[in-house]
Amino acid sequence: MAHVHVILNQKGGVGKSTLAVNLAAVTADVLGAGAADAERPPVVAVSIDPQGSAVWWSERVGEGLPFDFVQAHNDLPGLAALSRIPSAQHVFVDTPGWLDLAEDSGADPLGKGAAADALRAVLSNATDVIVPIEPEPLGFQPTQRTVERVVKPRGLPFRVVINNWDPRDGKADLEQTRAFVEAQGWPLARTVVRHYKLHTRASADGLVVTQYGANRVALQAREDFFRLALEVGLAAIPKPARSRTRKKAAEKNTPKKKVKA
């Protein structure tokens, strides 16, 4: 069974596509994607954003894409079975922002329509949720609605990630955002994904984070995603189950110790 990681926030423009694509890239890198003996990549990125920004990005990367990519916003049966994708160990799902049309607290805040149905299908078999938030107060309320009305009622493990922080702006907004998340009692990733022009240019240049050049800025930009992936345990390789036949053979060939009387 694959681990399904959903990148989710009601607010658009918080970097969901960038997180989904680059976390998939670094996880595939750690798991050895591209090895000569690998039949299929162990990582899959899935987009349910009808705008298809991640589709355009993946097409720009082309054959160098180190993971499988699927645009599946209109494939509800497939979305409900993401954890059963053959050979996949990790699946990253890029989701769209949405309008909170259901004001009644008892109603489903995802609302109605094709996008809402796709979100529900994905969340029905999610392993966990990664909630990106940018260090600005305008994103606080949508993030709160996402966590309190969508994620927590479903009992899904989640982690908030501060994304796209520009160190040149100082630490005031960063600390305010941290204080907001901690005041809600939400789990917060220690890794902060910093703003780099490399990230904003990557889709147009046809690159994922593991393909950036070998210079200081590129190394720092990659570091954030590797640290985040390791922090949330995405690169952990599940131990393969030993078949009963292999287990018996191993027991047969293992010499037994003699017990002294």
Q: Briefly, what is this?
A:
The protein has 261 residues and is an alpha/beta fold. The protein has 9 helices and 7 strands; from the N terminus they run βαβαβαβαβαβαβααα.
Keywords for this structure?
single chain; 261 residues; alpha/beta; 7-stranded parallel sheet; 7 strands; 38% helix; 13% strand
Topology:
Layout: E1 3-7, H1 16-30, E2 43-47, H2 53-61, E3 68-71, H3 76-79, E4 90-94, H4 114-123, E5 128-133, H5 140-151, E6 158-165, H6 172-184, E7 193-194, H7 197-205, H8 216-231, H9 244-253
Parallel strand pairs: 1-4, 1-5, 2-3, 2-4, 5-6, 6-7
In words, what does this structure look like?
- With 261 residues, the chain is an alpha/beta fold.
- Helix content is 38%, strand content 13%.
- The protein has 9 helices and 7 strands.
- It has a 7-stranded parallel sheet, sandwiched between helices.
- The longest helix has 16 residues, at 216-231.
- The radius of gyration is 21 Å and the shape is globular.
Q: What oligomeric state do these chains adopt?
A: single chain
State the secondary-structure class: alpha/beta
Task: Give a quick account of the main beta sheet: strands, pairing sense, barrel closure.
Answer: 7 strands, parallel
Radius of gyration: 21 Å
Order of helices and strands: EHEHEHEHEHEHEHHH
